Amino acid sequence: MIREDAHLLFGFFSTAEREMFRLLLSVNGVGATTARIMLSSLTVDELSRAILDQDVKRVQKVKGIGAKTAQRILLELRDKIDPLATTSLDGNTVPRSDNKNSEEALSALVMLGFPKSASEKVVAKMAEANPGASVEELIKLALAHGI
Asked: 14, 60, 96, 102 - which has most CB atoms within 10 Å?
């Protein structure tokens, strides 16, 4: 990023992170620092899912993001992310979670001490394979799958 008073360089783990960073910068009131903090707190898939589901509370959990900023981010990026509703910026499928069972199962597994990234992948697979599964069933399936 080149500004009048500084040349700033930012590094990203993937092109998906860079694209999400650019999208966040396009939101009025979101600067480079806020966008970096958001990408440090949430993965690209989590942020995409929050935008698609209009999950204000999830975005507000990021340090420094208030209710108005979270609503502005969701409102301004909804149309930019929506065409990618079936695939995220990095090519993985992002299920639109109308039910919260998979999120609750993931939360329970993390509270039990399992790593979030591994749990997230397993719960997503189990929820995709068993669309009507309850929270308890998803947890059992994830544990049986061997997180």
From this structure: 102
